[in-house]
């Protein structure tokens, strides 16, 4: 059963940004572009999503000792951009308001990788 691998891939697509500049020049535009490019605006605009600014390996370390499934809070804080839907229509006109945070993150770990983003704390 390797469904957890797909879940790690999905987690990376939904939540990890190791390439963009932090902080983004325009947070709302950043959210709109990222949500669209990562296919979270079809069939509907996803109402809420958080992006973690960090290399995949650093995010994965949160779960390094946890076979799980278990909810765990990171021991280090992360730079985050939190995106909330404010209106507009899918797939190409979903509007988002972005806000920046530096917070610990709570995730669900399965087989030593994060598979679900719970919240930031």
UniProtKB/TrEMBL annotation:
Keywords: Disulfide bond, Endonuclease, Hydrolase, Nuclease, Secreted
One Pfam family, short name: RnaseA
UniProt KW Hydrolase keyword: yes
Superkingdom in the source lineage: Eukaryota
CDD domains tied to this protein: RNase_A_canonical (cd06265)
One Gene Ontology cellular component: extracellular region
Localization (cell): Secreted
PROSITE patterns: RNASE_PANCREATIC
The keyword Coiled coil belongs to this UniProt entry's keyword annotation: no
GO molecular function: endonuclease activity; hydrolase activity; nucleic acid binding; RNA nuclease activity
Domain Ribonuclease A-domain span(s) in chain numbering: 4-121
UniProt record, GO biological process: defense response to Gram-positive bacterium
Similarity-based family: Belongs to the pancreatic ribonuclease family.
The protein's name in its UniProt record: Ribonuclease A-domain domain-containing protein
């Amino acid at each position: 059963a390797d469904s957890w691998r797909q879940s790690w891939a999905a987690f990376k697509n939904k939540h990890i940004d190791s390439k963009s500049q932090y902080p983004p020049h325009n947070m709302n535009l950043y959210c709109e572009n990222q949500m669209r490019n990562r296919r979270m605006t079809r069939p509907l605009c996803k109402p809420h999503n958080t992006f973690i600014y960090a290399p995949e390996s650093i995010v994965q370390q949160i779960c390094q000792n946890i076979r799980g499934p278990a909810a765990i809070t990171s021991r280090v804080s992360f730079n985050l951009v939190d995106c909330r839907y404010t209106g507009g229509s899918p797939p190409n006109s979903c509007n988002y308001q972005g806000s920046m945070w530096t917070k610990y993150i709570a995730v669900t770990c399965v087989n030593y990788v994060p598979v679900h983003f719970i919240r930031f704390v």
